[in-house]
Specification:
This protein is of the alpha/beta class. It is built from 17 helices and 20 strands.
Length: 622
């Protein structure tokens, strides 16, 4: 009975309770490994981004601090999520962490790509050593009396002339050596001298740039020989180049000078001295005609067209400009035709009024050759190809090379205004990419970033935010001169040269010193009057013509006694408006001695009331 009772007391087990519990789904080891690897990749990407963001943080310290803080917070959240996902072995957390990490990896990869692209472009622009592509042609003259050269093999034993220290000379010598050809070499100072030697049969073959015809066609007397020349061989190669040593300045505190040169087949197609005063944010642009006949610093007293100095080296170009103007050059910026096309295209084109219809010579990037395009009169939205044609043209305009210099300055100002006004990051990337491939400078990346940050802060603080480019007060100028003819013994003819006025050099020097010399006290202006209802147009910094002796015929086949007597040409002074009481222009000095710098009549930051009467006490700009 007791047994029965005991049996009855045995509880009956519930089937639900006795059934085995299903184990929770846990992530497999492979998921954990995948998650760990992905987390490491994201961490590396974020570290790279923080590094490059910090490198350019001078552009906006506050913004970059916020970016870095946000990136660090996101990274900590992701790493914490990964840690707990693996620790708790929870599949849901693993899936969430995986999705976030994949998204972070994608965003981080794009950000890293952009930052690396920016850094590469900046490094390419500021590198001290770089390569330049040189197009070279071996040119013969059909009417020459020397050795007949019809093909490459005929050059052995022939006399080959080249411009000393130039890229084509180096490329041609290597090319002929590799082909087993051994000529006799003869060096000259510049390409014009090489071409003259070819025509006069001093040499049998001339080593010239591929675009030698457009380069040498500034003189009709020389251009008339082109139809009898032919290229027996042309080739392209890269040569190494070095930037000149730059000054060590704080560009936010000290005024500085920049020599801007536009390079075309080794020659300087554009020569411009740019000065920047970071205190007043005043910029001057002083153009020098590329055909100016001046002493070349590396010719040891010899003279030539100033653009020939660039064929030797950038250092020779800088020294020649310094010797000519008396201005110390702190930095250099060099660009080529490709850069003009790419940068103008990167900003979406520029709007310019073209005064006259003409056929413009531009550049084909694909073939590295020149070609003509129509340039209609009127308002034009110019892409890079048309902007280059506009910047190069001079024959269609009455003022010739002055028009070209004016157009080049206009394009620079238009491009600068569009860059400053843009808020499109893609435009900045495109501009940097275009510049990185084709523009070189010895301004350091740190200096560039610091100055850009300084300019943007000043623009946002003191100037019209809708027109950021107004932060710069830009004044343009050119060193003027006159045409002359010089006798060439080799060709037995007069050739065109362009001589600069001493007065223009002196006035340009003074205008530059007014902008960069912080130690001299300027003398006060007299009175300047104009109507407050009219737009004030500052007078030119230098005159178009000067009253000084002009020698228009130099040398000749006969004695100087039989030459026409050269008389100084009397040129009436150009009346300027507004009238300014100033000292008369000196006739001869090129670089004036230390003296009080006359104030710039075009500087409107001198104080005064709305009646247009300028006060005698200049406003002090901090």
């Amino acid at each position: 009975m007791n047994d029965l009772e005991n049996t009855e007391k045995i509880p009956v087990l519930d089937e639900k309770k006795t059934s085995k519990k299903k184990p929770k789904r846990r992530p497999k080891v492979g998921w954990n490994i995948f998650l760990t690897v992905l987390a490491v990749v994201v961490n590396i990407l974020f570290i790279v981004e923080v590094f490059y963001v910090t490198k350019y943080s001078a552009l906006s310290t506050g913004v970059f601090m916020i970016i870095n803080a946000v990136m660090l917070a996101v990274l900590l959240i992701l790493d914490g999520l990964v840690f707990f996902s693996i620790r708790l072995r929870n599949l849901t957390l693993v899936l969430i962490a995986s999705c976030l990490l994949v998204t972070g990896a994608g965003a981080g990869s794009y950000a890293a790509y952009v930052l690396l692209r920016v850094d590469k472009s900046v490094n390419d622009i500021t590198t001290s050593s770089y390569t330049k592509t040189v197009n070279t042609a071996l040119v013969v003259y059909g009417k020459g009396t020397g050795k007949e050269v019809r093909e490459l093999a005929d050059i052995s034993g022939a006399i080959v002339g080249y411009a000393n220290g130039t890229g084509p000379a180096e490329v041609a010598e290597n090319y002929l050596a590799e082909a087993g050809i051994v000529p006799e070499y003869k060096s000259y100072n510049d390409y014009a001298s090489v071409f003259n030697a070819l025509i006069s049969s001093e040499i049998d073959v001339a080593v010239l740039p591929g675009s030698y015809k457009s380069m040498l066609n500034t003189d009709e007397a020389i251009a008339s020989y082109f139809e009898d020349t032919s290229v027996i061989e042309s080739f392209t190669a890269d040569v190494k180049a070095e930037s000149v040593v730059s000054a060590d300045k704080d560009l936010t505190k000290a005024p500085f000078t920049v020599l801007l040169t536009g390079e075309n087949q080794g020659l300087a197609d554009t020569i411009m001295i740019v000065t920047v005063n970071p205190i007043s944010m005043r910029i001057t642009m002083t153009s020098i005609a590329r055909d100016s006949y001046v002493p070349i610093a590396c010719y040891y007293g010899g003279k030539s067209k100033i653009n020939a100095a660039h064929t030797v080296s950038e250092e020779c170009m800088v020294a020649t400009v310094e010797q000519l103007t008396g201005v110390d050059i702190d930095y250099t910026v060099e660009f080529n035709f490709d850069s003009v096309i790419d940068v103008v295209d990167a900003v979406g084109g520029i709007d310019i009024y073209n005064e006259i219809e003409f056929e413009g010579l531009t550049w084909d990037k694909a073939t590295q050759a020149e070609y003509y395009i129509p340039m209609p009169q009127g308002e034009m939205h110019m892409d890079g190809v048309h902007a280059l044609a506009y910047a190069r043209e001079r024959y269609a305009f009455e003022d010739g090379d002055f028009a070209r210099q004016r157009h080049q300055q206009e394009i620079i100002q238009k491009v600068l205004a569009k860059i400053m006004a843009s808020r499109n990051p893609n435009m900045y990337l495109d501009v940097l990419s275009a510049a990185g491939n084709n523009i070189k400078t010895n301004i350091s990346a740190e200096q560039m970033v610091t100055f850009m940050s300084y300019a943007m802060k000043k623009a946002s603080r003191y100037y019209d935010s809708s027109n950021v480019a107004s932060v710069f007060n830009i004044r343009t100028n050119r060193i003027t001169g006159y045409s002359a003819m010089q006798w060439n013994e080799g060709l037995s003819m007069y050739l065109y040269i362009y001589l600069l006025y001493n007065g223009a050099i002196s006035d340009s020097y003074n205008s530059i010193q007014r902008n960069i010399d912080m130690n001299q006290t300027p003398s006060l202006l007299g009175s300047v009057s104009w109507s407050a209802h009219d737009t004030y147009t500052p007078p030119a910094l230098s005159q178009d013509e000067y009253y000084e002796h002009r020698e228009t015929m130099i040398g000749g086949p006969e004695d100087s006694a039989s030459q026409p007597e050269t008389q100084p040409e009397v040129i009436e002074p150009v009346e300027e408006t507004p009238s300014i009481d100033s000292e008369p222009i000196e006739e001869t000095p090129v670089v004036p001695e230390e003296q009080p710098i006359e104030p710039d009549p075009g500087d409107t930051d001198l104080g005064g009331d709305q009646t247009g009467e300028v006060s005698q006490t200049p406003e002090i700009v901090e």
